[in-house]
Each structure stands twice: as C-alpha cells, then as structure tokens.
From TrEMBL:
Xref: CDD domains: HDc (cd00077)
Protein name: HD domain-containing protein
Domain annotation HD: ranges: 29-124
InterPro entries named among the record's database cross-references: HD/PDEase_dom, HD_domain, HDIG_dom, OP_Dioxygenase, Phosphonate_degrad-assoc
Xref: Gene3D superfamilies: Hypothetical protein af1432
SUPFAM superfamilies: HD-domain/PDEase-like (SSF109604)
Amino acid sequence: MKAEQTITEITALFDQHGSDDYYGEPVSQLEHMLQAAMLAERAGADEETIIAAFLHDIGHLLPSDLAEDHMDDYGRVDHEKLGADWLRERGFSEKVAQLIEHHVNAKRYLTYKHPAYFSKLSEASLKTLEFQGGPMSAEEAQEFETNPYFRGILQVRGWDELAKETDLEMPPVGQYLQLCRTYLENR
C-alpha cells in the first residue's frame, strides 16, 4: 500500500474520531495521541518509537458498531492488537507494531511487578484494566520480559499514562503525519 494512501486513511480516522473524548479522561483521542508522541520526541526516542507513541491507540478509532467490540464506554476490546495489525498491513515495521500491540500488556505487567503503579492509574485506566485481564501472573510477566522490544513497550506505556493533560500546547497533527509519511516512503 502506498504511503500517501495510508496517511489519507489515518487522517480520515482522525477526522472522524479524533475529537471524540478519550474514554473517561479530560482530553480527546487526538490530543492524547499527540501528547504521547510529543513526550516520546522530547525523550529523544527514535523515529519508530515516536510513531508508535503517536499511533498507539489507533485501534480505538477503527470502525465498529458491534457492542461486543467495546469495553462498555471505554473503547475497543483488543484495540492494541487491532491497531498493530492494521498498521502492519499498511507497511509499518514490526517494531512499531510490537510497541503498539503490547502497550496494554505493559499496564498489566506494571500493575503486577510494581503494585504502587496500580494506585497511580486513572479511574478509566483501572476500568479498562478489568476488561484487559487485570495484572499479569508471574508466568505472564516472565514471558513478557523476554520480548525484544520490552523496554520500548514500557516507554510507550509511560507516555500513554502521562498523555492526559488539559490545555497543553501541542504540535499540529500534520507534523506527525509527515513523520509517518516520510517513514513509509523510505521503507
């Protein structure tokens, strides 16, 4: 699939659902994703990690009218896998896909490994954690730690948790769409 077509599809998703509330948080879907990308960029992350932070919740924006596809009023069930697969089909790397596909597992891991992390989660994040299987078991955590992108996944999770600030000046969406376009053109 050509880069421009993919960017057109992503733009359409943002146009349709980007201004929707970010499930129980004081920001929109687009504001949340822009903030995550901005945090990744400020941390000096590489291009693929910035893109993953930007698109980590794209699965929430993919269309579905089926009730069983949703976590009550908290977004799409398996949004992380849906988004990762959707991006893989459009030419994004396995690294980008893995960082997105496992950002929910990172929440489950962190709530198992660091109980204090659990107390820092927002009400909405606690609610979605119930739908997502709760904290990992010891065996799940041990296996998760072997993922070659483990550290990057935890970084994306951290930015995801922080990307809920109101009245924050953010770069335009076009800046990150252009990053994605250039990335896809060079693959």
